[in-house]
Amino acid sequence: MFIFLLRRSSSRRLFSTTSIPPTSPSFxxxxxxxxxxxxxxxxxxxxxxxxxxxxxxxxxxxxxxPPYRPPSSLDRSGDKPIKSDLPxxxxxxxxxxxxxxxxxxxxxxKYSPFGPERVDRxxxxxxxxxxxxxxxxxxxxxxEEKRKKIRERIQGEELANAERIALVERCGKHKTKRQINLGxxxxxxxxxxxxHNNWKHAESVRIKCxxxxxxxxxxxxxxxxxxxxxxxxxxxxxSLVLYRGRNYNPKKRPIIPLMLWKPQEPIYPKLIKTTIxxxxxxxxxxxxxxxxxxxxxxxxxxxxxxGGLVPMIRDAFxxxxxxxxxxxxxEKKDYTKIGCKLRDLVPCILVTFExxxxxxxxxxxxxxxxxxxxxxSREFFDIDSGYKSQIESESSDDK
Length: 399
Description:
Blueprint: H1 2-19, H2 30-34, H3 46-60, E1 90-91, E2 127-128, H4 137-155, H5 161-170, E3 180-182, H6 189-199, E4 204-209, H7 217-228, E5 231-236, E6 239-243, H8 281-293, E7 296-299, H9 309-317, E8 322-326, H10 332-345, E9 349-352, E10 357-361, E11 378-379, H11 385-398
Parallel strand pairs: 3-4, 7-8
Antiparallel strand pairs: 1-2, 4-6, 5-6, 5-11, 8-10, 9-10
């Protein structure tokens, strides 16, 4: 028993001496046998620790990158403003804005949508005029003549029927997927740049018109030809084919400065008044109740084609005094713009826009207007009879 206790005590001493690490190199043989050097964390000298840390940081630290600067449209870095010789006023939309109608106010200060000091034209809040608006009619007539000369020079000789047919076939849906969509904003300024970009790769481009601008397709076609200097060689409903011209050179395309944001619409007079002209307050209330209770002439689909709406309303006014158009599903901006167009094209008197409906009244002294403000559903542009019958068969298949 005594021998066992002695062995146990000796084993405890050995374990205690070997398990505790030495505090200094004089109590250990590791330095002499294995040339062991302690890490800096075990070194008692703080100066050595700081120096070793600085050396490690100098090796591992990367050089600081300069702070990120996003490409700002406002930072021109001393560049000169863009000078464009296009002979027309720059507007956000050429089909949905009427230069003859003047707004009664602006919703924001006159900030140019092109950015500050990017274009050599001043923004009036509605447009960027090419000539001083106080110059007079002579300057506007000169601009119109300049536009006509540029368009005639680019178009050159007229296309033959065979050439026109070939261009229209190349723009077919089964041939190419290139297409420009013309939506509720109509022909916008930036869309002109898209048209010229498509004309780099093909002589003609397909344009699909949808929504509000299709009420007045004649205005859409005339503005496209006037602002892009092209020519429409085919039209079927809302789909157009715009030809660039024989003498068009993509390398000498016009300079079109892009609008960086959509400008705020100015304030125009109210479309719906409290009392209709020639009626009392009670008569206007009865007129609105009667209009909302009348059967709907048609229902407008979202982003549809409304080219036949004007002749449909004119025919309805021959029998009915009030016409209601169902606009459920459309945004308020869309059917208010449609009502404004109908007021000028039919012509008619707007009664109400309540409950997503357009109610219009033909007025007391109604005289039906004939033609002039809408186009036929299809134009063939002097195409031969064989191709005409082919298009008719394709359109009947689509239906």
